[in-house]
Write a structure and sequence with these properties.
The chain is α+β, with helices and mostly antiparallel strands. The protein contains six helices and 20 strands.
Length: 347
């Protein structure tokens, strides 16, 4: 882990009532005892950058925490822009990821769970991870580049506490006391202390969503028993309409409707590009999609925000005509292919 330099750093935990505890860190031994609730703490101060160090806690049992660094610790909080992991931007930063091995940059990802009733005393799980080509893929991209720049300037260990959650409202990050200044949000927070209400909302949402998708499957002509599936490369599309892609179908002939829309396009390739593995880049699609090439399924994405990057295996692409089929599901808003994103077949 990483501890904050030049700060009052609390080391704390639980033990038997009145149990004596000793803690050794660097060259100092600290002594304390648990209170009547079994709680104990000691405070480290005056820590200077460095490490790795070992912290040893001794009582009726012994706990050893190794590989501790002292440096600067940052809380990285926010919505999806902060949560967005390096894996999502890996096509843009392949060299950065390959050269990310730096044990002085570490991230702790806070588990994503909520409790409207009681502040929690501890986390259910979690661990610190050092930056390297494998671990960095789960780091917040914003936080990683922030830490990398700070380390290059100050040369002290950087700890990142990733406490982010995409789509979370600002009021959810305020304490209950702070919410009192905003009566509407405070009342809402009180409502959600009722676990029965939460269960009711979750149940009703599931029923509504399941019913919508059930109806969409039943009415999807592309999967009907009467017609050959529309992802097959050799079906008759003479009666199909044309549409400009990228773009939203609400702005075109189809209009502002929600449901399932099938798209097909022919791609002609020379023999030199056939029967080889390739990557299909389909920008972003609102909301969900399933993608087929020459009748072979190559990938799916269940919501609108991830970039679509699909691997086409060897021997799927052919010389001459190839058929790309994209089945798009849009449950609300404007469905379609987001403009100003890359749409291409690359090798």
């Amino acid at each position: 882990m990483v501890l904050q330099r030049d700060a009052q750093v609390k080391i704390w935990g639980w033990a038997a009532i009145n149990e004596e505890i000793s803690i050794q860190f660097k060259d100092t031994v600290y002594h304390t005892s648990a209170n009547s609730n079994g709680e104990w703490k000691i405070v480290l101060s005056g820590l200077k950058p460095g490490g790795p160090y070992t912290l040893q806690i001794n009582a009726s049992n012994q706990i050893t925490v190794s590989d501790i660094l002292v440096g600067d610790v940052w809380v990285c909080s926010g919505q999806s822009n902060m949560e967005l992991p390096m894996a999502r931007v890996s096509p843009l930063y392949g060299a950065e990821i390959a050269n990310s091995d730096n044990p002085n940059i570490r991230q702790f990802a806070v588990p994503q769970r909520y409790d409207f009733n009681t502040p929690q005393k501890d986390l259910e799980s979690g661990n610190w991870k050092k930056a390297n080509p494998e671990n960095v893929l789960s780091f917040s991209a914003v936080a990683y580049f922030f830490a990398k720049e700070l380390y290059e300037i100050y040369r002290v260990p950087i700890g990142l506490i990733n406490a982010s959650l995409g789509g979370s409202p600002a009021e959810a990050w305020l304490s209950e006391e702070a919410l009192r200044a905003f009566p509407e949000h405070y009342r809402e927070a009180q409502r959600f202390k009722d676990k029965a209400l939460i269960a009711q909302i979750e149940t009703q949402d599931k029923i509504r969503i399941d019913a919508w998708y059930k109806k969409s499957r039943e009415t999807d002509a592309g999967h009907s028993e009467e017609a050959k599936s529309w992802y097959a490369p050799d079906i008759d599309t003479a009666g199909w309409s044309t549409i400009d892609v990228p773009g939203y179908w609400a702005d075109q002939e189809l209009g502002a409707v929600n449901g399932v829309v099938w798209f097909r396009r022919e791609i002609h390739l020379p023999s030199s590009m056939a029967e080889k593995p390739a990557k299909l880049i389909l920008g972003r699609i609102v909301d969900a999609d399933s993608v087929f090439v020459n009748g072979s399924f190559v990938g799916t994405t269940s919501y609108q925000y991830p970039p679509r990057r699909y691997h086409i295996p060897t021997n799927v692409l052919r010389p001459g005509k190839n058929v790309l089929v994209v089945r798009v599901i849009n449950s609300f808003g404007r469905g379609g292919f987001v403009p100003d994103k890359p749409y291409e077949l690359v090798y």
